[in-house]
Design a protein that fits this description.
The protein has 399 residues and is mainly α. Helix content is 75%, strand content 0%. The longest helix has 38 residues, at 66-103.
């Protein structure tokens, strides 16, 4: 399969595909990567397994929300600049809207049926991630060298917890690939059609640095609540590797210790964020709705949401123009083969913790997860259908 899509899709197609995922992608960033692979590599065939794994490895290296960065790149690949914006909007808004409604007092997550659905959605994440690990392992770890790199990545993330372990695993895998996988490097790699010019990449890099340095100075020099909020959420998005739960201590330091949000409101929003689909970074929309500066509300929610995602997307745009040239180097191909094998190991470790340990509490959950895995791998059902079926199954097993 070629790395480039057979045809360029419409913005409407991109928006519709990502809206389905935004409504059904439960389970956190690792599960999101599984959803993306199932939808865009297996079902829609927008790009090859190799090209997808390359994008995942790249986004794991960059600070920011890795799954949202991958989604943004997929939208860019399929629909250009407007496709990228459509992908980000459709994947992000459902969870952001739900969390804002929760902040405004909507009791969305109470009652035994709701709790059963949430439990079923956690089990769904097990099936999705298991399916992704299985498929990627067969494609990206076909020999002893790369299987060994994947195993080493598992040990690395187990021994070194947190985002540091993930970054270390990819670095070690890349170096091991340089040493062990040169014989597998392809002479020619089909380029990804990424409509980002070098000039746009340079401007994005300059904008990232200017905002990271300039916003704190402006917030310090000017007594503006708007600038203070922009600075706090931009820094949180710019300085976190791994995304997801890793951003929580940074946000807590910015909004709770400053007195903008009470500890009780922060924890209530965090609990709600675990039960909604889409990226955990949408927790920023909840915080914007309940914080004291600017009196909260929709404007502050939208501002916080935009600022926490902006640095990661700017960095991605800055790097992408150089991506095809990098991938053509023989040494780079060997490096990426090792890094991709390490990504498989990271996904495998995440399949056990936190995905498996938080969802599989007994034989009923195991049977439900196995059902979801078979529906994806044998019956080839779309991910959103499996989400709906297993959510109903969660109500049944908790009744």
């Amino acid at each position: 399969m070629s790395d480039t899509p057979a045809t360029r899709g419409s913005v409407r197609e991109v928006f519709h595909a990502f809206l389905l995922l935004g409504l059904t992608s439960f389970g956190g960033p690792i599960a999101h990567l599984g959803y993306f692979r199932t939808e865009f590599v297996e079902r829609r065939r927008w790009l090859s397994e190799q090209a997808y794994a390359d994008l995942v490895a790249l986004c794991q290296f960059l600070p920011g929300p890795a799954s949202s960065q991958v989604g943004f790149a997929l939208g860019l690949l399929r629909g250009g600049t407007w496709g990228a914006l459509a992908a980000w909007t459709a994947f992000t808004l459902p969870s952001a809207i739900i969390l804002v409604l929760f902040a405004l007092g909507a009791a969305l997550l109470e009652g035994p049926i709701s709790q059963g659905i949430i439990h079923g959605l956690k089990v769904t994440a097990v099936a999705i991630v298991a399916h992704a690990v299985w498929g990627m392992a067969r494609s990206l770890c076909p020999d002893r060298q790369r299987a060994g790199i994947a195993l080493a990545a598992v040990f690395t993330v187990v021994l070194v917890s947190g985002p540091l372990g993930q970054v270390a695993a990819i670095v070690i895998g890349a170096l091991a690939g340089m040493a062990l996988c040169r014989v597998h490097a392809e002479a020619e790699t089909a380029p990804l059609t990424l409509p980002v010019s070098s000039r746009a990449g340079h401007l994005a890099g300059l904008a990232f640095a200017a905002l990271l340095i300039g916003l704190p100075l402006l917030a310090w020099a000017t007594p503006s609540a708007t600038l203070a909020v922009m600075d706090a959420f931009y820094r949180a998005g710019a300085l976190v590797f791994g995304g997801g739960h890793v951003v929580l201590p940074l946000l807590e330091a910015e909004v709770v210790q400053s007195g903008w949000v009470s500890p009780d409101d922060f924890l209530a929003g965090y609990g709600a964020a675990q039960a909604v689909p889409g990226p955990l970074f949408t927790f920023a929309a909840y915080l914007g709705s309940v914080m004291e500066p600017l009196d909260g509300g929709l404007f502050t929610a939208a501002l916080a949401l935009a600022m926490i995602f902006l640095p990661g997307l700017l960095l991605l745009v800055a790097v992408l123009p150089h991506w095809n040239r990098f991938r053509r180097w023989d040494s780079a191909q060997a490096l990426m083969r090792g890094a991709n094998a390490a990504v498989v190991g990271i996904l495998g470790a995440a399949l056990y913790h936190p995905v498996w340990t938080s969802a599989i509490l007994g034989p009923r959950e195991f049977a439900l997860a196995l059902t979801g895995f078979l529906l994806l791998s044998v019956w080839k059902l779309p991910a959103w259908a499996v989400v709906a079926l297993l959510a109903g199954g969660g109500v049944l097993i908790t009744a």
